[in-house]
Specification:
Distance between the termini: 36 Å
CATH topology: TIM Barrel
Structural class: alpha/beta
Strand content: 15-25%
Helix content: 40-55%
CATH superfamily: Aldolase class I
Oligomer: single chain
CATH architecture: Alpha-Beta Barrel
Number of helices: 11
Shape: globular
Bound molecules: erythose-4-phosphate
Strand order of the largest sheet: 1-2-3-4-5-6-7-8
Order of helices and strands: EHEHHEHEHEHEHHEHEHH
CATH class: Alpha Beta
Length: 220
């Protein structure tokens, strides 16, 4: 399973990208507004930092407007993937943009029927929102598992991009459910890397290293 980061804050992307684990970035209108940056400027800066897929979402609600906006944002960088909502207009735009050779990420997916429709419209990625499904008392990970199974059985090539990830176990469960990608918030990356035994082990090694013959008191 690949990792994308779910943010438009450049410093967060820079820090996690330095770990060498990122294959892409997802943004949405709320994340762009939270970054306080101009849409085009920030998407192009991110594209220059991370070589992989950068999802940039259209804000038009009609198919014609989505196609127009989609073509415009796709021209900003070869890495841009056009994010479209899972509505009739979004599906129509997905088909048109796919036919034009533009990659798409169909977002706000909350059911298997929706995911099947997006795949038939040619979506490159489908984004089921695990956390928001959990929020209404359903099982977001089970949704991801069923979408993946339906795609495999149907020979559909759309990649399952687990979204609305809230904690490290969501990442683990998404991987075990067969997701191709998980888009993970900065905070969850920082939670994923931490383990008390790693720090305690490292402290112990460094303490012992300092005791070796000839070690200066200042160097580990
Ligand atoms: C997906 O690409 C969305 O940007 C995101 O994962 C939504 O997550 P949220 O439910 O935490 O807002």
């Amino acid at each position: 399973m690949e990792f994308f980061i779910d943010t438009a804050i450049v410093d967060e992307i820079k820090e996690i990208n330095a770990w060498g684990v990122l294959s892409g970035v997802t943004t949405n209108p709320s994340l762009i507004v939270a970054s306080g940056r101009d849409f085009r400027e920030v998407v192009q800066e991110i594209a220059g930092m991370v070589g992989g897929a950068i999802s940039a979402e259209v804000t038009a609600l009609d198919a014609e407007g989505m196609i127009r906006e989609g073509k415009e944002v796709a021209a900003w960088s070869e890495h841009v993937v056009v994010k479209l909502p899972l509505t009739p207009a979004g599906l129509q735009a997905c088909k048109a943009l796919t036919d034009a050779g533009i990659k798409t990420n169909v977002t706000l997916c909350f059911s298997v029927p929706q995911a099947l429709l997006a795949a038939r419209a040619g979506a490159t990625y489908i984004s089921p929102f695990a956390g928001r499904v959990d929020d209404i008392g359903w099982d977001g990970i089970e949704l991801i598992r069923q979408i993946k199974e339906a795609y495999v059985l149907g020979g559909l090539e759309t990649k399952v991009l687990a979204a609305s990830i809230r904690h490290p176990m969501h990442v683990v469960q998404s991987a075990l459910a067969g997701a191709d990608v998980a888009t993970i918030p900065y905070k969850v990356f920082t939670q994923m890397i931490k383990h008390p035994l790693t720090q305690a082990g490292l402290d112990g090694f460094m303490k012992d290293w300092a005791k070796r013959a000839g070690a200066s008191s200042e160097t580990p």
